[in-house]
Amino acid sequence: MRLYLSSFRTGDRPDLLLGLCGGAGREIAVIADALDAAPEETRAECVRREIAALDALGFAGTEIDLRDYAGRPGDLAGELQRFPAVWVRGGNVFALRYAMARSGADVLLTKLIQDDAIVYAGYSAGACVLAPGLRGLDACDAPDAAPETIWDGLGVLGFAFVPHVDSPGHPECEALTQVAGVYRASGVPYRALRDGQVLVVDGETSSIVP
């Protein structure tokens, strides 16, 4: 299993992402469905910037819009198998989870990750969705951003992922710092990352850097 989960954007160690993927020049699928509730013009511009940032690191980014694969998991499976890596950007975790469920990406990506057939990378909501569950994140993300609220995460991680903690420059810092406090008080396993930090998993090795 290879994961590169950043609090914000590519974080401070994109070299480790390149290492997980075997260096530059690799194709990477970009999933931006955490932005599905945003205006289409805003969503399109965010996707453009995301791909440009990945291209600057030496990747060749191509968007896979999960809305195009609703009810078509077989077609999505064929598309995902073309890529050695996937980049799942931040936004609303409930919008992302809904799109994953409708397209079958939740099951497909979980299997690809567990089989070590793909590097799963991303930030904020793109990392949060890998947790066992999403309860508590409604303090930050509106559940009604999706037509149906799905509270179960993909369960790839054994703990909740809480980004933007102790990151005063981020607008969600206060809300997510409080979420981390609630998890701590209620005994929910979690990892809290400040912006710049990345959770890197490579086989049996897992660490938060820097």
Automatic annotation (TrEMBL):
UniProt cross-references to InterPro entries, sorted A to Z: Class_I_gatase-like, Peptidase_S51
This protein's UniProt keywords: Hydrolase, Protease, Serine protease
Record has Hydrolase as a keyword: yes
Keyword presence, DNA damage: no
Pfam families: Peptidase_S51 (PF03575)
GO molecular function, one term: serine-type peptidase activity
An individual GO BP term: proteolysis
Similarity comment: Belongs to the peptidase S51 family.
UniProt-recorded name of the protein: Peptidase
Native source species: Actinomadura harenae
Organism lineage: Bacteria, Bacillati, Actinomycetota, Actinomycetes, Streptosporangiales
